[in-house]
Amino acid sequence: MTIRPESTVSPVQTVTYRWPTAVTTDTPELLRWTGFGGALLLTAGAWAVSARAGGLALGVAIAGAGLVVLTWTLLGRTRPDAQWLRRTLAWWCGPLLVAPPLFSGDVFSYLAQGEVAANGLDPNVVSPAVGASAEAVARVGVYWRETPSPYGPLFTTVERSITQVTGGDPVAGIVAYRLVAVLGLLLVVWAVPKLAAMTGVQERTALWLGVMNPLVLWHLIGGVHNDALMLGLMLSGTVIALHALPELKWWPYTAGVVLIGLGAQVKLPALVALAVVGTALARRLGGGWVRFVAAGLGMVAAAVVVSVVTSLAGMSGFGWVQALGTPSKVNSWMAPTNWPGYLAGAVFGPESGQAMISSARIAGLVLILCGVAVVIDRQLRGRVSEVTALGMMMSLIVVLGPVIQPWYLLWAVLPLAASLPVGKWRTRVAVLAGIFALLVPPLAGNFAGRVPELIGAYVLGIALVGGAYLVLRRARVSVAQA
Predict the structure, then answer these.
(1) Residues near 305 by Cβ (< 8 Å), separated by ≥ 6?
(2) Dihedral angle sign, alpha carbons of residues 43, 187, 430, 473
(3) Under 8 Å CB-to-CB from 374, ≥6 apart: which residues?
(4) pLDDT < 50 positions in the chain
(5) Cβ(265)–Cβ(157) under 8 Å?
(6) What parts of the sequence cross the membrane (predicted)?
(7) Which of 379, 387, 439, 367 is nearest to 408 (CA)?
(8) Which phi and psi (to 5°) does residue 381 adopt?
(9) Are 149 and 118 contacting, i.e. CB atoms less than 8 angstroms apart?
(10) CA-CA distances (angstroms) from residue 374 to 381, 411, 425?
């Protein structure tokens, strides 16, 4: 009798062929150059619009912005390594380095405030309309011509130094501020992966959502906002302080605290990171509210010392203290705390609306304080990581604060990108970033009298991006989860 081995092959085999659900091996390179092309279109269109070329040029700029957002979204479905993402970021930033100021004219306020400081006046007390030349004032947005600077003494020193070095030349000044923004971005690029390593998030994932985010490209590089310097100092200081805690290396920890304090001397919200590293220190020393209070007092003392030294060394004085509420003088339509006031104003009149806005802002501040207290308590008990706590507290400040600008979202997006695991919350953050990246036209200015032109430009831009998407689909760039 012959014993046959049992066959492991099914008598009938069915093979199903499907279109690939992931991207092909050459997709990342295709997306890299597609995004670079979008940045080129945005830059070229922006220059044409600044030369008053009309709606066609604006449509090209909008198409370029949309193309970058599209390729960034598709790139999130691929798996390139972190070094590839850094190189791609450099390529995408390249055209924006020579673009006119994008999405905002705040850099012209910086130039005027620097002129005020260079004239020996305090820009936190004296507005550009009083202390700057007529040429500099003419470039400032109408809302800010009569408004003193809301920034801290470190940035006032930067403004004065740039004016003195460039002699007040606006083109050279914009170049100098872009270099400062690039320095801040380099610090962010260094810090975000290290924060991600602390929370177990993949480096490439954190770089994609955080550093390659279109909001970073638009507002830190294209818009030349000083948030780049604030975020770079805050995040790098947080990394250094948290890395020093396991072995209680006091000098590196102090250096991290000082960097965070310097970030707050650009914009005050960076102080939130001191609450995070102070709470982390309390946990490292054994936890409990006694150690927490002691660590908190230490953070307050450090913040005061850094602010005093910065104010005296930069010869900017202490006028910045009374200017902290300057941004809230303009009612931001993006801020949810202002929405009840807009509704009340539409129904009962402007005075009732403004009263409601003031009341809602107070309520928002109370909610921020309560929310921050809850997050700190959860961090102290070890229920959330330090990086997650930073992202959560910054989210509260952005959402419930009196003013929201698209670039303010980066205060929360960057730490969240380094802490959120893959899932619905990460997806929501990415979607929100993509929406805000397309929410305002690429150039600063009042488009109220150019609505038909703006609508036509958006129609053209959407059509061009839609065509590019179809081309990418034919090239088998899949939007399915890789």
Answers:
(1) 261
(2) positive
(3) none
(4) 1-25, 479-482
(5) no
(6) 30-49, 56-75, 175-193, 205-222, 257-282, 288-309, 362-380, 392-417, 429-448, 454-472
(7) 439
(8) -85, 0
(9) no
(10) 11, 19, 20
- The two structure tokens encoding residue 445: 């200015």
Count other C-beta atoms under 10 Å from residue 107's C-beta: 23
pLDDT at position 397 is: 94
Distance of alpha carbon 46 from alpha carbon 58, whole angstroms: 7
Residue with tokens 């305002």: 440
Cα atoms found within 13 Å of the Cα of residue 467, Cβ hemisphere only: 7
Neighbouring CB atoms inside 10 A of 290's CB total: 11
The conformation of residue 2, written as its DSSP 8-state character, comes to P
Q: What angle do CA 439, 104, 228 make, to 5 degrees?
A: 95
Q: How many beta carbons lie within 10 A of that of residue 373, not counting itself? A: 11
User: Using CA atoms, how far apart are residues 209 and 438, in angstroms rounded to an integer?
Assistant: 16
Residues contacting residue 169 through CB under 8 Å, at least 6 positions apart: none
Residue carrying structure tokens 């961090």 = 379
User: Are 195 and 419 in contact, with CB atoms under 8 Å apart?
Assistant: yes
Q: Longest Cα pair distance anywhere in the chain, in angstroms? A: 110
Q: What is the DSSP string of 110-149?
A: HHHHHHHHHTT--TTTS-HHHHS-HHHHHHS-TTTTTS--
CB of 277 closer than 8 Å to CB of 241: yes
**CA angle 313–316–322, rounded 5-degree value:** 130
- Tokens 């003494």 sit on residue: 153
Cα-Cα-Cα-Cα dihedral of 172, 175, 181, 187, to 10°? Answer: -110
CA dist 111 and 137 (Å) reads: 9
Q: What is the pLDDT of residue 10?
A: 40
H helices then E strands: how many in the chain? 20, 0
* Residue of 31, 15, 42 whose CA lies nearest to 76: 31
Phi-psi region of 18 (alpha: psi -120 to 50; beta: other; left: phi over 0): beta
Q: How many CB atoms lie within 10 A of CB 309?
A: 15
Give the Cα separation of 439 and 442 in Å (integer).
9
- pLDDT of res. 466: 83
Q: Residue 462 is encoded by which pair of tokens?
A: 């959407």
pLDDT tens for each residue of 162-177: 999 999 899 999 999 9
> CA 361 → CA 335, 396, 465, distances in Å?
10, 13, 39
Tell me, what's the pLDDT at 449?
58
Characterise 120 by phi-psi region: left (phi > 0), alpha (psi -120 to 50), beta (else).
left
Instruction: Give the Å distances, CA to CA, from 184 to 152, 191, 467.
Output: 16, 11, 35
